[in-house]
């Protein structure tokens, strides 16, 4: 993966190229968290172990901690103290798709197949007839965790038009029968677990000398019988690519929501926090499922980290409450651009378009956490970053989804504003954004970290 450099936040093309590398390195939430941690470590951020004692914040002003497929990182500005507010860019590392089931291997009518379960709300038909791989983490019987990914080994085949003459009128997939991928022919002793062991890559999580040697030894020694548990999903192996007549569009898997995760990472590395503040990124897992996990936004991860950082500053309960009252969370998650072929699905007057800037997301029923104060902050940040912004609101007949924003605001009482990059084809296996919007979100996030 191309390392994040300061020039990326001042060079749109360099930023987009590096973001494409990040997406390619992040076929699962576990890989995304690993890629973030690797980048931070190379930039001098100290990795923190949740089971160990943490040094005071003044002695480790830049750090990060990983919890499964989530990661939280921080960078303290000058003159931080027990009442210093935080500026949190909240995002998520997971995307809708398919997760491998237990006892996944089966055969049907001469084909070797893999049992998968639908994760979140993917656009199912977009996954048909694509070259797919498997990626995620495996845990061996000794408790060691390994990141794994294969190349293109699977495909969810669509039924030929000759066998369903009405397919172009209305294609409805049975979520169990029609979504199981093929990986080869029956009778060839194919096993997805054997594939994972054979293609083992990424090694044991964590850091330290000898990791490459341990990884090599693990590859040689492991067998499918050594696997005690797996968290593995399908991913589209087609690489991100700039398209459009002028190269202004970016077609990629997992823009929802690696677009926000990478924007936060790049801004954290590039931007010196405002004196007396602490810049943070909180990239949670499981947002597509509602965030109710230990590594999700509804879990205790962020509050745990904040409590430990405050303890390192010697904060009392009164100090911590004052700090939180002065803090902000920028909840960044991809949103919808007006679709040119389905324009009636959008609000008739609020018409966000690709290329016109990241969006402020508004919902009267608080599916998004933005309010008037959040709108004012967003306007100031756009002006400071010299990035155009726009607004999103749903058509009253098309209910909107939600984000980590309301969850974070509810759990912590922190002021929160929901924003994001406009997309076409959200929750497709391959989504579409404008390069200016992707770059603009990173620049605005930098302004957010630099703001008092």
TrEMBL record:
Biological process according to GO: proteolysis
Keyword Zinc annotated: yes
One Pfam assignment: Peptidase_M18
Keyword annotations: Aminopeptidase, Hydrolase, Metal-binding, Metalloprotease, Protease, Zinc
Cofactor(s) the protein needs: Zn(2+)
Top-rank taxon: Bacteria
CDD domains: M18_DAP
GO molecular function: aminopeptidase activity; metallopeptidase activity; zinc ion binding
Enzyme Commission number(s): 3.4.11.-
Cellular component GO terms held in the UniProt record: cytoplasm
Family (UniProt): Belongs to the peptidase M18 family.
Name the record gives this protein: M18 family aminopeptidase
Classification of source organism: Bacteria, Bacillati, Actinomycetota, Actinomycetes, Micrococcales
